[in-house]
Request: fold
Amino acid sequence: MAVKLFVSDLDGTMLPDGNVVSAENIAAVRRAAEAGVTVTIATGRMFEAALPVAEALGVDVPIISYNGGLIKSPSGCVYEEHTVDPALAHDLIAFCKERGWYIQSYSGGVLRYVEPCDESRFYENSQKLTGEAVGWDGLFAHTSGNCKLVLVTKELSVTLTRAEAVLAAFGERVDVMRSANHLIEIVPKGISKASALKSLAGKLGIAIEETMAIGDAYNDLPMLKAAGKSVAMGNAFPEVKEVTDYETLSCEENGLAAAIYHYVLGMGADAPVPMTRG
Reply:
């Protein structure tokens, strides 16, 4: 069955770093769009951080951001939005404050944290954006409108311990996922890239069997399992490669472009970039 909706993760999939999309990936996305395929983004990033990438691709299609919390087009049309209950957000922030843990919020499309620190600088540098230091009172003042909350840590062992603690305390009301070794994502219960993929496909009148998703990290797993067909990046975590139908080249090798040419457009040896392994 032909692919009509192709959904790509950003960091580690379309982007090796920051917001710069390679010319090869841009060309492949536009080639697919010309062939009638809807190509879009599904990311844990805030919408404002994903927007420059969509603009570079030159497509005005719904973007899935906040790990499924918001589906919004570059032109500003909101298709769907899910936010953490304000009282629950307050409790999550208080939970972290009591333990001296770093947490950040995103209401109104603004990244907020208590004070500048290694964790905030790491996140800002990785996303190529600037947040606001607002103190604990500032975080408590912006508990409404958060599609997600994020804990940033300095090492994997800390990430695992804190994720388990948050899950134990709030797991009945939120979903907790590790999007990278240093990031813990907290989203409304039942919300994920998978739920957004299914919802968007339905809104576009596309059968789930006609969808394909590509990714590399743990927060991509639900989406990859839900899509009609799935592709793991060459640099993907082993757990990701285990559940996907195909594997492409690494992010640095423009594996996204290779996957589009090979699995979406069926160009085989005629593809203008190196083909996938295997």
Remarks:
- DSSP finds ten helices and 13 strands in the chain.
- The first strand starts at residue 5 and ends at 8.
- The domain at 5-81+191-270 is CATH 3.40.50.1000 (Rossmann fold).
- The CA atoms of residues 163 and 184 lie 6 Å apart.
